[in-house]
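Final report, closing paragraph on structural work. Over the funding period we assembled a curated collection of sequence-structure pairs, and we close with a single example.
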Amino acid sequence: MYPYSTECTPLCPFRAFKCTKNALVVRRRRDRLEPTCEWSGDRCIGWRCQFAVCLKHALLPDGTCSLLVQRQGQRKPPIDEEAAKLESTYSQLSRKLRRAGLDLEGEV
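Its predicted structure, as stored:
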């Protein structure tokens, strides 16, 4: 769920989701975890509940977690893009050094 969704859920990877009614119970059903609200007797609806709170103050009004949004923004670009940036930077530096009287191609 974490790499694909930035929505705040009771199964928060930061363990920051809290129910102010203390009614959240996480049960194991078959091979997955299922959050249940003991107060309503139904499945927990997550950030849509009026008693939902984020202990890290990361719950945004639209239900997204600002901590997960920040993590997604830190993903590394593909290696092809990095190589293209380095190549263009190297060519710019070599031109500047050639103008200054230094030749990098002859020394390498």
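The chain has one domain: 17-100. The helical segments are 66-73, 79-100, 104-107. We thank the funder for supporting this effort.
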